[in-house]
Write a structure and sequence with these properties.
166 residues
C-alpha cells in the first residue's frame, strides 16, 4: 500500500494531539479541580484524537495482514463508521449529563458543526464501504479520518484558550 506513510503521519499527529491534551490535564490540575465544562472538553478532545490514531492505523494493519486493497478499504470504512458513531453517541451522552450551567458555556454553533463533521465522516465511510461513489478509496478514507482529528484539535484549542469562569 503506497498510502501507508500518509496514514502513519496522520496517526502520529493524532497521538501528538492526545499527548498535548494530557499535558494540559497535568498542568491545569495544579489549581484544584476542573470545571465540568473543562472535563467535558478534555475528554472530547482526547477521544477523537485517539480514535483518529486508531483509524489511521487500521488500513496499514489490514494491508500487512495481506488483504486485497478493496477489502482493506471496505473493512477500514466499516470500522470508521463504528468508531465515529460510538464516539458521537458517547459525546452526546456526556453532554446531556453536564449540569445546565456547564452546558450553557459550550458553544451551540460548534456543537452543530461537530455533529455535521461526524455525519460527513460516517456518510463518506458508508459510501466508501459500499463502493458507490468513490474510486480512490484511500483518499476518501484519509479525509474521513481527518474529520474527527479536526474536531479534537478544535476542542483542544478551545480548552486551552477559552476557559470558563469558575
Amino acid at each position: 500500500m503506497d498510502e501507508s506513510g500518509a496514514f502513519q503521519s496522520l496517526a502520529e499527529l493524532a497521538i501528538a494531539l492526545a499527548g498535548f491534551t494530557s499535558v494540559v490535564v497535568v498542568f491545569g490540575r495544579r489549581g484544584g479541580d476542573f470545571h465540568p465544562a473543562d472535563r467535558f472538553r478534555i475528554l472530547s478532545a482526547l477521544v477523537p484524537s485517539l480514535s483518529a490514531a486508531l483509524l489511521a492505523l487500521v488500513p496499514v494493519g489490514l494491508d500487512l495482514a495481506g488483504l486485497s486493497a478493496s477489502t482493506v478499504w471496505r473493512a477500514s470504512s466499516l470500522m470508521l463508521i463504528a468508531v465515529v458513531g460510538v464516539d458521537g453517541l458517547q459525546t452526546e451522552v456526556r453532554r446531556s449529563r453536564l449540569p445546565p450551567e456547564s452546558r450553557a458555556i459550550l458553544s451551540p454553533r460548534l456543537r452543530n458543526l461537530f455533529r455535521l463533521l461526524r455525519c460527513l465522516a460516517v456518510l463518506s465511510g458508508l459510501l466508501n464501504a459500499t463502493g458507490v461513489l468513490f474510486a480512490p478509496q484511500a483518499g476518501v478514507y484519509f479525509l474521513a479520518v481527518l474529520l474527527p482529528l479536526v474536531v479534537g484539535a478544535t476542542i483542544f484549542v478551545r480548552t486551552v484558550f477559552v476557559r470558563p469562569a469558575v
